[in-house]
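SEQUENCE WITH STRUCTURE:
===
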Amino acid sequence: MHTLFLETYRKVTSLFTSQSGQDLPEYAFAVAMIGLGSVAGLNSLASGIAVAFNNVSGEIASALL
């Protein structure tokens, strides 16, 4: 029984310390973080553009009256 736990421990630690096969998850994580950052940045940019257009339309409306 003791050898079973020891062998399981060795296999689990080798999974965490192994460097092979980690490329795809690392790239997927990087792409996900870039995507989330882009969405957050575009949301604030969109609200800033909407405010600018509202200001311009208000100035045009007041100039025409």
Remarks:
- The chain has a mean pLDDT of 83.
- Residues 34-65 form one domain.
